[in-house]
Amino acid sequence: MKKQQPDEKRQQPDERRTPAMPDAPVILSGDPGSFPWSVFHERHPKLLRQVLDALPYGPAERRHVEQLLAESTTGVLTPLPPDAPDHEQWLRWGERLWGLPWGEVPFLWAESYFYRRLLHATGYFTSGAWHGVDPFGPFKSAELANPTVDDELATLSALLDLPEAKRRAALLTSALWGNRADLGFRITNDPGSVTATGLLVDDGPLLWRELERTAGGRVDLVADNAGRELLPDLVLTDHLLTSGLAAEMALWVKPQPYYVSDAMMADVLAAVGRLRRSKAGAIGDRLWRAIGDGTLTVRTHAFFCAPLPYHELPAELAAEFAGATLTILKGDLNYRRLVGDRLWPPTTPFAEAAGHFPSPVAALRTLKSDVVTGLPEAAVRELDGTGEAWRTSGRYGVVQVCNAG
Ligand SMILES: O=P(O)(O)OC[C@H]1O[C@](O)(CO)[C@@H](O)[C@@H]1O
């Protein structure tokens, strides 16, 4: 009999929205040599070192961070302390998982909990001096302050002068490959050595057709990383609003620091401010006004930091997305949550894995983890034949669309 995977035991909240998930194995992180294992055993130790170097945390915070590293690499899952504001919530999310080694629970779950525990270790939710201090704040600020960002913004601004077809392709390309720049990925990958090589699926034309068909509605963009990824996302947002393809936009961000550089409201404000002080100042000014008059709403929800896939969207969030004419999901983590963090055969139709989403959905994603769907068989054969770690190298990307009319 097949061994039950931990997240198969969990009751689905709403069977009508839950697709019949085929039997692809849930990705775990306990296999030495696997990509998820390297995230816990190679990437996280470096990340935690950088966090402790970037801010003068005191002995108690440092001790808690070291304990987290030990627990998440060699220990078992222990719940948040009872006074944590989300203690009960996590108890439920981790039902039947507590006490298991970290590597034996779903990778998505364990990684998400790792980031929540890091906030606990650094006092983000505890009353005291470190309350509300983003442990990744110094990295995010340094990225936005980098003088090369000025050149990138000048280039992004110039895209708006291109003829329509070229402009559209360039806007999508910038938003897609901007996703390669996430700070977590760069801890173990030298960005200089990673050249974007291939768009494995390009549903870009279908995406623009869908936007034209539904012009005048509300387009949602579920953001991923702050800084260099959020800037092109904001330029795309501005274009959708000024062109009338969207009458309104919702930009969904994380409610708290997560996966190193994930964007929160503070990061949106910093990015819009950066745009306003650059050659793309007119774009920044328009976005500022759009936020002010409600044409662009920045939204968040606790579920964006939940350790769960999007087929378990809470009803109120599903209802919100159902009101969008199209939802654009950015990045690797959103992709994992959309299709389910499973070792799908890569030729599994994208629509089969993502069709449960409440609105038409487009994924703009650089491949940085093992999960992938919707690839042509010949491409998979060729990529497998290279011997390259193509699923995780950040050199490949996809633009995939599903549920379009
Ligand atoms: O910022 P992104 O594109 O969501 O990528 C984050 C990715 O980084 C990792 O945490 C480690 O590579 C992946 O597990 C995750 O999907």
From TrEMBL:
Q: Which UniProt key words apply to this protein?
A: Hydrolase, Manganese, Metal-binding, Methyltransferase, Transferase
Biological process terms in GO annotation = DNA damage response; methylation
Q: Which reaction does it catalyse?
A: beta-D-fructose 6-phosphate = dihydroxyacetone + D-glyceraldehyde 3-phosphate; beta-D-fructose 1-phosphate + H2O = D-fructose + phosphate
* InterPro entries registered for this protein in UniProt: ARMT-1-like_metal-bd_sf, ARMT1, ARMT1-like_metal-bd
Q: Where is this region: Disordered?
A: 1-29
Q: Which domain of life is it from?
A: Bacteria
Which cofactor is recorded for it?
Mn(2+)
| Residue intervals of the Damage-control phosphatase ARMT1-like metal-binding domain | 40-379
> Per its record, what are the GO molecular function terms?
metal ion binding; methyltransferase activity; phosphatase activity
Where are the compositionally biased (Basic and acidic residues) regions? 1-18
> Is Transmembrane a UniProt keyword of this protein?
no
What is stated as this protein's family in its record? Answer: Belongs to the damage-control phosphatase family. Sugar phosphate phosphatase III subfamily.
Checking PANTHER family in the record gives: DAMAGE-CONTROL PHOSPHATASE ARMT1
Write the protein's name: Protein-glutamate O-methyltransferase family protein
